[in-house]
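wait is this the right file?? whatever heres the structure
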C-alpha cells in the first residue's frame, strides 16, 4: 500500500499503519491536540509512535492515551512523561456524536496519523470496528489480486 498523499499545507509527522490493517475505518475526524512546546518540536522531527495509542471519552472530553512522544533532544527532560494523557480538541457536537457512536458494540476511536496543517498539530481519528482474522486474510488476498491485475494490464500495454 502506497503512503497516503498529504494535502497542500499538511505534513504527516507520525502515522499508524497498523490501525488500517486491524480496523475497518467507518468515519474519520480531525482533532487538535494539546501539546507542550518540546512535544511539538519532537513531532516535527518525526519522532513519536501511535502503535499503542487509543482515544477515550471521559467527563464529556476526548483524551488520547498511550501515544509515545520521546523527549526533545535540546529540551528540558526533567518532569517529562513521554506517554502522558493528552487532550483532544473537538467541537462539543462532534464529541457528543462520538459518545453515541462508541456506545455501539465493537466501535473504537483509533488514532490514524498526526500531521501539521498550517503550523498546527492535528490528529486524524478514525471510528473503527475491529477486523477478525479471516477478514484480514481476505483483505490481503484482494490486494494481491488487484496488484496482479495491474501487472498483467501493464504487460499488455
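ok assuming it is, sequence goes like this
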Amino acid at each position: 500500500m502506497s503512503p497516503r498523499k498529504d494535502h497542500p499545507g499538511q505534513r504527516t509527522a507520525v502515522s499508524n499503519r497498523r490501525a488500517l490493517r486491524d480496523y475497518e475505518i467507518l468515519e474519520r475526524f480531525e482533532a487538535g491536540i494539546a501539546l507542550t512546546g518540546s512535544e511539538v518540536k519532537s513531532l516535527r522531527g518525526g519522532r513519536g509512535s501511535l502503535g499503542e495509542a487509543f482515544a477515550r471519552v471521559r467527563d464529556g472530553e476526548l483524551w488520547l492515551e498511550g501515544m509515545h512522544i520521546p523527549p526533545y533532544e535540546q529540551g528540558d527532560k526533567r518532569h517529562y512523561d513521554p506517554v502522558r494523557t493528552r487532550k483532544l480538541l473537538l467541537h462539543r457536537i462532534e464529541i457528543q456524536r462520538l459518545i453515541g457512536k462508541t456506545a455501539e458494540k465493537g466501535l473504537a476511536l483509533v488514532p490514524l496519523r498526526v500531521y501539521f496543517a498550517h503550523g498546527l498539530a492535528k490528529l486524524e481519528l478514525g471510528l473503527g470496528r475491529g477486523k477478525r482474522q479471516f477478514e484480514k486474510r481476505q483483505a490481503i488476498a484482494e490486494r494481491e489480486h488487484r496488484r496482479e491485475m495491474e501487472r498483467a494490464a501493464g504487460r499488455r500495454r
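The two ends are 23 Å apart (CA to CA). so i think its the right one actually
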